[in-house]
Amino acid sequence: MASATNTAPSGGRKLKLGIVGIGVGASEILPAMEATANIQMVAGADVNPRVRDTFRKRYNAQTYDSVEKLCDDREVEAVWISTPNKFHAPHTIIAANRGKHVVVEKPMAISLSEAEGMIEAADKNKIKLICGHTQSFGPHIRTMRRIIRSGELGRLCAVNVFAYTDWMLRPRTAEELDVSQGGGVPYRQGPHQIDTLRLLGGGMVRSVRGTTGQWFRGRPIPGYYAAFMEFADGTPATLVHNGYGYFLASELVPWGTNRSRYTYEERAAIRKQLLDGTRNENEDKDAMRIGGAQEGQLFRNRGERRPWVPNDLGILIASCERGDIRQSQHGLYVHGDDGVKDVPIVEGSTSRRAELEELYNAVVLDRPIRHTGPWGMATLEVCLAIMQSAKKRKEIMLSHQVPAPEED
Amino acid sequence: MASATNTAPSGGRKLKLGIVGIGVGASEILPAMEATANIQMVAGADVNPRVRDTFRKRYNAQTYDSVEKLCDDREVEAVWISTPNKFHAPHTIIAANRGKHVVVEKPMAISLSEAEGMIEAADKNKIKLICGHTQSFGPHIRTMRRIIRSGELGRLCAVNVFAYTDWMLRPRTAEELDVSQGGGVPYRQGPHQIDTLRLLGGGMVRSVRGTTGQWFRGRPIPGYYAAFMEFADGTPATLVHNGYGYFLASELVPWGTNRSRYTYEERAAIRKQLLDGTRNENEDKDAMRIGGAQEGQLFRNRGERRPWVPNDLGILIASCERGDIRQSQHGLYVHGDDGVKDVPIVEGSTSRRAELEELYNAVVLDRPIRHTGPWGMATLEVCLAIMQSAKKRKEIMLSHQVPAPEED
Prior knowledge:
Number of helices of chain A: 12
Radius of gyration of chain A: 20 Å
Low-confidence stretches of chain A: 1-9
Structural class of chain A: alpha/beta
Helix content of chain A: 25-40%
Strand content of chain A: 15-25%
Number of strands of chain A: 15
Distance between the termini of chain A: 18 Å
CATH architecture of the largest domain in chain A: 2-Layer Sandwich
Oligomer: homodimer
Shape of chain A: globular
Mean pLDDT of chain A: 92
Largest sheet of chain A: 9 strands, mixed
Largest interface: A-B, 55 and 55 residues
CATH class of the largest domain in chain A: Alpha Beta
C-alpha cells in the first residue's frame, strides 16, 4: 500500500524551494511540499496580494510579486513553476538564467520551439530541469511499468486508456479559456495520458492520428480528444479524454460512485450558469487557492489511503502476452494465467511526493532525472500532434521522441 | 423492455427459408427462426451427416449435403448462409443465381472483390441480399440511434467502443484458425463494432488508422485490433477488441460478474490445453452444434430479459453535445442535463429476430433493406482497412462507403 514514508535519504540537507504562481496548481502540490521533510519552502511569487499574504504567513517565507524578484533571492535553490501555461517557457528560462533548478508543471510549454528554448537554457546554465505534474509519476504507473519490464506477463502488446471527467466544468480563468495560451483538455489533460503511455510503452512514439472536439457553447476551448498512436516497435495505444462531465469513467468501478468533485446535479447547474453567464468563476477559483474556502476540502488532509478512482488519467488497460494490468482501489489488478491478483503498490510515495523526490535527488544527490526536458518535449510533441492531426485530418509522424529512462 | 412481440404483420404468409451451414452460427440463429411465426424452416444443408440428421428430425425439413442441392429445392425462397467465411461469397452467388434471396452472416466476404461479386449477382438476379448478424441490428443500438437522430442531446460528436472478451478461447475449426480464410478477431468481431459505429455515425467513414495484434502462441490468428476512424463529417470514433480473455469488459458493469462463458479458471485451463495441444476442439465445437450437449445452455431458452453485458460489442459510449449514451442492464443510460435516465428498449425484437424481420419485410412486403450489400461492403472495407493499416503502418482512406439508411 502507499505509505507516507519519504524515500529520500533521511538526514540529508534541506533543499530550499521557491514556488512561482500560487494558484490552484500550487494548492495541489503544497501539501506534498509540507510533508517532505527535506524540502524547505523559502519563497513564493504571485501577482495576487491575497495569496501572497496567506502564503507568507503560512510558511513564514519571502513573497514576491514577480518571478524575476523571486529568482533574484539567493536563498532559493530551485523553483517550482505553476504559473499559467503561456508563462511556463519564459519563467523557466528566467529561472535557469539565474541558476535556479526548475520543476515546470504540465504542459511544459505551448510549442516545441518554446520547449527547445527551455532545454537550451537549462543546458547552458547547467541547471536541472524536471517536467513535472503528470500521473506517470504516480506509484500505480511506476509499479505497472515494473511488472511490464519484469517480463512476468511477457512483452507489452497494447495499451488503451480512456477518461470521462468533469474537467470542463471546473473553474477557469480567462487565460485557461484560450487555446492559444494552452487552454483546453488536449493541452492540460493530454500530458497525463501521453506521459503515462510513453513511460509504459518505452517512450518512442512513431506516429499519431487523432482529433480534438469542442462542443459546449459555455466553454470556448476543446473538451475532448481521441487518438491512436503507434510506438516505433509497433505497439499500439489509444487514448481518449472527454471532459464534458456527463458520463464519468468513475462509474465503471464499484467504489467510484459519488467520488467525483461535483454531483450530477451540480454539474448540470454549472453548465447552465456557464451558458447564461451567471457563474462567478473568479470566486470559485479563488476559493480553491491558498487560504480559500475550498482549499482544505479539495487538496488538504486527503490522506494516503483514499481509493484510486479513474479521474484525470482514466481507466488504463495494459495488455501483455500473458495478461492484462489495470488499476484497483489501492493497487493493481494483474490478470495473469494464475488468476487475478490485487497487487499492492509498494512504492513509498504518491505522485506529487515522487516529483519532489526526483527534484531533491537530482539537485542534492546528483541522481539522474526521469522526467527531463527532452522527455517533456517528446510528450508535448504527441500532445501537439493530436491537435495538428485534428486540423490536417491526417496521421502525424513524430521526430522529437526520446526513450523512457532505463531504470525507474 | 425488450419483448417477444413480433413486429412483422401477423397473418402474413410464411416465408420459406433454407439454412446453409448448420454449425455454431446456425445454433445461434435457430431459436429466433423457431420463434418467428411467419418464417418456416423448410431445408438445411451441411457436410456433417450428424447435424443434418438432427436438423431433419427437429424441423421436419429437407436436408442436403451441398448448397447447390439446397438451392435447387424449389420450395426454398430464401437462404440463410452461415457457412465458414471463405464460402460466404461463392454460396451467396450460387443462391442468387438460382433466384434465392440471401441473408449472409458477417463478415459478408473476405475481400472487396468478393463483396462486389455478391452485390452484382444479387442485382442481376433481382434477389434481396441482406448482410446480417451484427450487433447493429440490436434494439439497444437502434434505440441509441433514434435518440441521437431525435436531436434531444444535440449532434453526435464522438463514439468510443471497447471490447475485452474471451473470443480467442472459444472452440475453433481449422479454417477459423486461418486468417486468409477470414479467421481472427478483426474479420470475425470487427463487423459488430464497425457496423454499429457506422449506423450511429451516419455510415460514411473517411479514413482508418489502426492495427491488429497476435500474441498468444496457442492461436495462429490475430486476437486484437485497435483503431481510430473519422467520419466524412469529422466525427471521430475509436474501437478496440481484445479477445485474449484475461481482463473482461463485463467486469466494468456491476451486473457483469460471473456472466462470461467461461470462468477465469476455465480460461486459464483452455489456454494451457491450447498451448500443449491437449484441447479437443472438434469435440467442443460439436457440442455447440445442433443437438450437441452445449447447444441448449448456450443458445436456447435464454429468454428475452437477460441483462445486457458488454460481450462482443463491448462498452460503447456515444457522446453528443448535451449528453452521453451507453447501454444499461435492460436499456440505455442517457446522461443528459436533466439527469441520468435508464431508458427502456421499446423495440419489439432482439438482434437476431430483427434480422429475420428485415428479411421477411424485404421479400414478402417489398420493404427497403437496411443492411444491404453495399452497406455490408462498406463495413467490410473498414474491417480490411484496419488490417491494411496494420501492415502498412499508415492511415487508409476509404472509397466504398455508403450512408446509413434514412429511416430505421
